[in-house]
Amino acid sequence: MKSGNGNGNGKRRMTAGWHDRRMDLSTKVGVVTGAARGIGHATALTLADMGIKAIAVVDQLDEVFSFADEANECFERKVMVPFKGSVTSSDFRRHVFTEMQSLHGPVSICIPAAGITRDRLAVKIDKTDGTADVYSEADWDIMMDVNLKAPIYWALQTIASVAEDRFSRRLGEWHPEEHVQGCIIFIGSVSSAGNRGQISYATTKAGLEGAQGTLSREAMYHGVRCAIIHPGFTDTSMVRVLGEDYVNSRILPQTQLRRLILPEEIADAICFLIRNAAVSGQLWADAGWHPTA
Ligand SMILES: NC(=O)c1ccc[n+]([C@@H]2O[C@H](COP(=O)([O-])OP(=O)(O)OC[C@H]3O[C@@H](n4cnc5c(N)ncnc54)[C@H](O)[C@@H]3O)[C@@H](O)[C@H]2O)c1
Question: Contacts by 24-28 with C-beta closer than 8 Å and gap 24+?
Answer without folding.
Answer: 24/179, 25/1, 25/50, 25/51, 25/52, 25/53, 25/109, 25/274, 25/275, 26/1, 26/2, 26/51, 26/52, 26/53, 27/53, 28/52, 28/53, 28/108, 28/109, 28/182
